[in-house]
Amino acid sequence: MVKILAIANQKGGVGKTTTGINLAASLAIAGKRTLLVDLDPQGNTTMGSGVDKRILRYTVYHALLGEQSITDVRITATAGKYDLIPANQDLAGAEVEMVSLAQRETRLKVALQTVKDDYDFILMDCPPALNLLTLNGLCAAQAVMIPMQCEYFALEGLSDLVNTIKRVRANFNPTLKIEGLLRTMFDPRNVLAKQVSDQLQQHFGDKVYRTVIPRNIRLAEAPGFGVPALFHDKFSKGAQAYLALAKEIMEAAA
Ligand code: ADP
Ligand code: MG
């Protein structure tokens, strides 16, 4: 059975894209058939997978608008053994163009139907907003992974996201779950980070992934080479943390 996860947090810079790329690469290296969907017009997931977003003929935009089948949009990541539904700036217009279309919230879900049985895991990297693109991710997902930095305002943004998830449950996707909260860019020497982390565990208990992603320069460097950290410095703390996260997720899905 395929596991379909939306990686979402309306805050930018919390590690969604880094998580998408590195988790996809880690699942793939463990032999899992993995698809990564870029839902952000910035196309960072696409570039970070070694694919030049500027020369793409078709992107997720064309699949959402129903202009191309998802199989025609799908490519193989240049680095890493996972498949990719790429995105670029074209996607910025999709929001407006989709407003007039029927079932605009579930277009990705419908598009993925034809390929979902090809995979063990489908990960969707959502943009930093609670917009129609993120809604498409949440409607297509079985569960949500929420990357967050352990800082003071982290919890505040969380309630907006949780409310959106409730709304999606009520209207489109009754079985949508919160798969887990992922602590990213973690610095154990930072007292505040530790306090927020403790708070998260008190509030959300086992919804917090055991694996913590440390702040690690290799994770930030790798996209510049168009590769997941695994192919940049396999033994770095960052690459190892995402391998551990993949293991945790595979165990939970088993
Ligand atoms: P988002 O997709 O939520 O906007 P990104 O994954 O793009 O966040 O991360 C924001 C920035 O932080 C990027 O420059 C990225 O390389 C860097 N970054 C992400 N995770 C880490 C980490 N664990 N350690 C160091 N830098 C990181
Ligand atoms: Mg991003």
TrEMBL record:
Query: Pfam families recorded for this chain?
Result: AAA_31
Gene3D superfamilies registered for this protein in UniProt: P-loop containing nucleotide triphosphate hydrolases
Top-rank taxon: Bacteria
Q: Where is the AAA domain?
A: 3-178
Annotated coiled-coil segments of the chain: none
SUPFAM superfamilies (UniProt xref): P-loop containing nucleoside triphosphate hydrolases (SSF52540)
Entries under PANTHER family matching the protein: P-LOOP CONTAINING NUCLEOSIDE TRIPHOSPHATE HYDROLASE, PARA FAMILY PROTEIN CT_582
Protein name per its UniProtKB record: Chromosome segregation ATPase
- State the species of origin: Nitrosomonas nitrosa
